[in-house]
Amino acid sequence: MKNTSNHQHKGLEKPQIAGTVEMNSVKFAYPSRPTEEVLKNINLKLKSGETVAFVGASGAGKSTIVSLMQQFYAPSDGSITLDGVPIQDIEREYFHTKVSMVAQEPILYDCSIRENILYGCDWATEEDMKTAAEMANAHDFIKQLDKGYETKCGERGAKLSGGQKQRIAIARALVRRPTVLILDEATSSLDSHSENAIQETLRRIAGKITVIVIAHRLSTIRHADRIYVIDNGSIVQTGTHTELLKDVDGPYFCLVSKQNSI
């Protein structure tokens, strides 16, 4: 990885983080295929509090970008910073309290909703839990359950719907008070009612933290502050939903047309 830091000690810093993410001239090839570049000169800046979406065909490089943002891999070249600090210089555990991800298939444990939301957060209070659940648009449906927050989720959340599991997973991420939240294909397997609930969740947290959405269903990201269209490892288009639709020959218009979600 190209070293763009002047710091002598790596992974020791705990800077104040507002949530501005930058990638500068980032290139990447998986270690198993070092000659196949899957990201090609990625340059972007996500401002604190923005909701940003990455869209594109399967295999375009969307998930690879956020994998690098989370330090699952290091770039082959270029730099990634969080509020100007190279991410590899930030103390790792601290970093992962500030950058949280909710996967397409969130893992819930066979215990209560309360225990699932507070998992790994011994310091969190009852108020912290309920605030996170309200932001995640989960509090109302939880209170309607017979046992409320004491309701058992079942193995891998089997007793809950897909939308309910996603919102509990988002609440679990939010209770850690991250400054960056990544949602990886969070609505791709949900019905329209659950998808609408997740969209309401995004509206509630908009502006409070930086939200990065990897979107398959383009209807979910219409209100994003900025949309990056990724193709073959490169950013090929950037703008809002409305701006991108004006280019009827562009890749975004093509993607939206295929989903009939204009």
From TrEMBL:
Pfam families: ABC_tran (PF00005). Residues 21-257 form the ABC transporter domain. GO terms for cellular component: membrane. Its main location: membrane. GO terms for molecular function: ABC-type oligopeptide transporter activity; ATP binding; ATP hydrolysis activity. It is a multi-pass membrane protein. InterPro entries: AAA+_ATPase (IPR003593), ABC1_TM_sf (IPR036640), ABC_transporter-like_ATP-bd (IPR003439), ABC_transporter-like_CS (IPR017871), P-loop_NTPase (IPR027417), Type_1_exporter (IPR039421). Keywords: ATP-binding, Membrane, Nucleotide-binding, Transmembrane, Transmembrane helix. Gene3D superfamilies: ABC transporter type 1, transmembrane domain (1.20.1560.10), P-loop containing nucleotide triphosphate hydrolases (3.40.50.300). It is found in: Membrane. PANTHER family: ATP-BINDING CASSETTE SUB-FAMILY B MEMBER 10, MITOCHONDRIAL, ATP-DEPENDENT PERMEASE MDL1, MITOCHONDRIAL. This is ABC transporter, ATP-binding protein. It comes from Ancylostoma ceylanicum.
